[in-house]
Specification:
It is built from five helices and seven strands; from the N terminus they run E-H-E-H-E-E-H-H-E-E-E-H. It has 160 residues and is an alpha/beta fold. The protein has a seven-stranded mixed sheet. Helix 1 crosses helix 2.
């Protein structure tokens, strides 16, 4: 499924829709260059889960847990992980296999430990379509990861 966003508000709104429909145990991997909107998308997911506290990228802390929403949100930024073994130290299995929702920025760096089922969220710029334009592509990986089914979306309901 591909969504076109023409600004941060639309990216946030799409993330919020995902947060509203999120189910326990879902894992989303966030792929995209620096400054492409991964944190804005995550802020939307948090809002959809009912999380009111400020959400920022855990670039230096690697993991941020937000617990006051409808489901716990585990937000990982693994850009600074030097070795997959470091993921053991932060307790990644609790994030991937717990009862919350997990968003992993730069997940391509830890592909070998990703769960069997997850949804990849790839965010890309296209400056020919404008500075604020983003193409957001969701791809299911593994069993039970059909994007429309997992997100409980009706045909044509993809736009925020």
């Amino acid at each position: 499924m591909t969504i076109e966003s023409f600004g941060a508000k639309e990216t946030f709104a799409f993330g919020k829709k995902i947060g509203e429909k999120a189910k326990p145990g879902q894992v989303y991997t966030l792929i995209g260059d620096l400054g492409v909107g991964k944190t804005v998308f995550t802020q939307g997911v948090a809002a959809g889960l009912g999380i009111l506290e400020p959400v920022c990228s855990p670039t230096f802390t690697i993991l941020q847990v937000y617990g006051e929403g409808r489901l716990v949100l585990y937000h990982l930024d693994v850009y600074r992980i030097g070795d997959v073994e470091e993921m053991e130290e932060i307790g990644y299995e609790d994030c991937f296999y717990g009862g919350g929702v997990c968003l992993v920025e730069w997940a391509n760096l830890i592909e070998e430990i990703l769960p069997a089922s997850y949804i990849e969220v790839k965010i890309e710029k296209d400056l020919e379509k404008g500075f604020s334009y983003r193409k957001i592509t969701l791809t299911g990986h593994g069993a039970n990861s059909d994007v429309r089914t997992v997100l409980d979306l009706e045909e044509g309901e993809a736009r925020p």
